[in-house]
Amino acid sequence: LTDKILLSKISKNSTCKIVVLTGAGISAESGLKTFRDNNGLWENHAIKEVATPEGFARNPDLVYRFYNELRAQLLDETVKPNPAHYALGKLQSLMGNECVIVTQNVDNLHERGGATNVIHMHGELLSAKCGKTNKSVISHDDVTRESRCTCCSPAQALRPDIVWFGEMPYHMDDIESHLYDCDIFVSIGTSGNVYPAAGFVNFANQCGAHSIELNLDPSDINTAFAEAHYGPASKLVVEFVERVQSLLQNS
Ligand code: APR
């Protein structure tokens, strides 16, 4: 049945649009910690201390250190894209702009896995932003209280380019327009705990999309999906892309 639905979506006309939402689970097999699994990041760090504007105001050095440690892990040469990232890179090369990846992740593994159209709604570890203008700059180095922007005179302090709890995620207008006209919405490796990302499936369903959850375990929003497969992303995402590729070739 689900392949019939996928085929109906894919062959409805020439342009079938797929929106993919990813969370920390897609990078777990690359060696990056998730947030809410056993021994996850939020087990060892208080969200209010390291992921809120108030926490940053209270103790900026603790927050700078937290994101500098995450960046150092990401830049470790043992951390590489896994088959799920490469499969999505292949899907984008197959579908071009008709496949959009919206990620809650702040790593660069989608791009290193060949993806070219990635919307980072929660920011990125490998950039920093000016505390005054909010302009982002590429930054692979540590960001500390001494770091300064290049967009202001006098130069202003830089902060991690991360969307903290209580702050508005980036690119929401673009994301909503993609959800509005997507035919297939696929959620990968997210627990469905954090809004607005956790609400995207409902919006996509209301707009007539076929929604699919690919996750290690059922997420908190698993009942919202028309179709679900559980297991490691490195297996499920490869299988999903192979399914779409064969349906595209036969449509
Ligand atoms: N393959 C597929 N899914 C996996 C894997 C794997 N190998 N390993 C873990 N998962 C799943 C878990 O079952 C869980 O549902 O990934 C999900 C990770 O959930 P979270 O740790 O809550 O991460 P995420 O959903 O991305 O968090 C969303 O919360 O803290 C904020 O801004 C932060 O972007 C983050 C947001």
What's the short version?
With 251 residues, the chain is an alpha/beta fold. The site of adenosine-5-diphosphoribose (APR) has 23 residues, from helix 2.
Helix/strand layout:
Blueprint (H helix, E strand, L loop, with lengths): L1 H9 L7 E5 L2 H4 L12 H4 L2 H4 L2 H6 L1 H16 L7 H13 L3 E5 L5 H4 L5 E3 L2 E8 L5 E3 L19 E5 L9 H9 L3 E5 L11 H7 L3 E6 L11 E4 L2 H18 L1
Parallel strand pairs: 1-2, 1-7, 2-3, 7-8, 8-9
Antiparallel strand pairs: 4-5, 4-6
Helix pairs in contact: 1-11, 7-11
The site of adenosine-5-diphosphoribose (APR) has 23 residues, from α2.
Structural commentary:
Strand 7 (184-188), helix 10 and strand 8 form a beta-alpha-beta unit. The protein has helices spanning 2-10, 25-28, 41-44, 47-50, 53-58, 60-75, 83-95, 109-112, 172-180, 200-206, 233-250; strands at 18-22, 99-103, 118-120, 123-130, 136-138, 158-162, 184-188, 210-215, 227-230. By secondary structure, the chain is α/β, with parallel strands linked by helices. The strands form two sheets. Strands 3-2-1-7-8-9 form a six-stranded parallel β-sheet, sandwiched between helices. The chain has eleven helices and nine strands. It catalyses: N(6)-acetyl-L-lysyl-[protein] + NAD(+) + H2O = 2''-O-acetyl-ADP-D-ribose + nicotinamide + L-lysyl-[protein]. This is NAD-dependent protein deacylase. It comes from Agaribacter flavus. It is found in: Cytoplasm.
